[in-house]
Design a protein that fits this description.
A hairpin with a 2-residue loop joins strand 1 and strand 2. The chain has a single domain, classed as ABC transporter involved in vitamin B12 uptake, BtuC. Helix 3 packs across helix 13, helix 4 crosses helix 11 and helix 8 packs antiparallel against helix 11. By secondary structure, it is an all-alpha fold. A two-stranded antiparallel sheet has the order 1-2. It contains 14 helices and two strands. The relative contact order is 0.16. The radius of gyration is 21 Å and the shape is globular. This is Iron complex transport system permease protein. Its main location: membrane. InterPro entries: ABC_BtuC-like, ABC_transptr_permease_BtuC. Keywords: Cell membrane, Membrane, Transmembrane, Transmembrane helix, Transport.
């Protein structure tokens, strides 16, 4: 029976990998082609081959098409993949260390804390470490929010749902007040940037920003995969994990820094994009089970695919307009969050 269950889970994992790969490639290709300037698949492939040093007849002859591909669409696509992966991995790690399916950077206020840090860097003109200044302030804001959530919501070795949600409400309210103050104190340019952060968007992504987000996302992903076995042991309970050699508190502190790092770098350049870290790990977990290493890797791919599709919809659903991507992810994540709340309440018989 156990062997049959294992084979079924492996089959689901392979099927999910194939589906995610197809969805990811299709969404990237569609995002490259669709827009105010339509571009054919042959021109996309030809441009890529020419960039790799392979002469071909498919590459676009029009410099406007070439510029649109490499200056406008590719940075936006790569940024979306990296941000989606970072937020999904951050959600999976948060759910592992809190032992609670409702933990997600946007819901518990980590994204808001990171946005507050980024907004402070903008308004006060913090440039001490160059282009990394906003990302570092966003990281520190996200780290502070995560630490508050952790120390307030944990009690007697478990995370209470009500306390977790109330803590998230309090942090989101505080961060909202801080953002409102910075909007009041900042100049016109700062206000526009802060408004952009609150809505979430990939519009205007640049290669130099991608060069910051992608390495941080990869480091966070590798670290989360390395810690995956310990998350599996932690799921057995703190006492059992300690008996099996896991330093639970060190694992949680390292994981909190990891969540803040992934969330901070995503929020610093694209604003608040909520619910990705909630929806994606749950869907993946239902398909392949709770083992954290495959869950984290598949969540990274799924998060990238989700943001890529959401950004494509944001760019095309209203002709000539670019909708905030955070609004679209909330439209998906909000009902899913209600479903999780309902299921949690039904299982526990209340809100404990």
């Amino acid at each position: 029976m156990a062997a049959a269950r294992s084979v079924t889970r492996v089959s689901r994992g392979i099927l999910l990998s194939v589906v995610l790969a197809v969805v990811l490639v299709a969404s990237v290709l569609a995002s490259s082609m669709v827009g105010q300037l339509p571009i054919t698949p042959a021109e996309i492939v030809g441009s890529l081959l020419r960039a790799a040093g392979i002469p071909n007849g498919w590459a676009p002859a029009d410099p406007i098409v070439e510029s649109t591909i490499w200056i406008v669409r590719f940075p936006r696509i790569v940024m979306g993949l990296a941000v989606g992966a970072a937020l999904a991995v951050a959600g999976a790690v948060m759910q592992a260390i809190f032992g609670n399916p409702l933990a997600e950077p946007g819901v518990v206020g980590v994204s808001s804390g990171a946005a507050l840090g980024a907004a402070a860097a903008i308004v006060f003109g913090v440039t001490a470490i160059g282009s990394w200044s906003i990302a570092v302030l966003a990281f520190l804001g996200g780290l502070a929010a995560t630490l508050v959530v952790y120390f307030v919501s944990r009690a007697n070795g478990r995370t209470e749902v009500v306390t977790l949600l109330l803590t998230g409400i309090a942090i989101n309210a505080f961060a909202g007040a801080g953002l409102a103050f910075l909007l009041f104190a900042g100049d016109t340019a700062s206000r526009e940037q802060i408004t952009f952060w609150q809505l979430g968007s990939l519009n205007g992504s640049l290669w130099r920003e991608v060069a910051i987000v992608v390495p941080v996302m990869l480091v966070g992903l590798v670290a989360a995969v390395v810690l995956g076995r310990r998350y599996d042991l932690l799921a057995l309970g703190e006492r059992n994990a300690r008996h099996l050699g896991v330093n639970v508190e060190s694992l949680r502190i390292v994981s909190i820094v990891l969540v803040a790092l992934l969330t901070g770098v995503a929020v610093a350049f694209c604003g608040i994009i909520a619910f990705v870290g909630l929806v994606v790990p749950h869907v993946i977990r239902m398909a392949i089970g709770p083992s954290h290493r495959p869950l984290i890797v598949a969540s990274a791919v799924g998060g990238g695919a989700l943001i890529s599709i959401a950004d494509l919809v944001a760019r095309t659903v209203v002709p000539g307009a670019d909708l905030p991507i955070g609004m679209l992810t909330s439209l998906i994540g909000g009902p899913f969050f209600f479903y999780l709340l309902y299921r949690q309440r039904k299982r526990s018989g209340g809100w404990a």
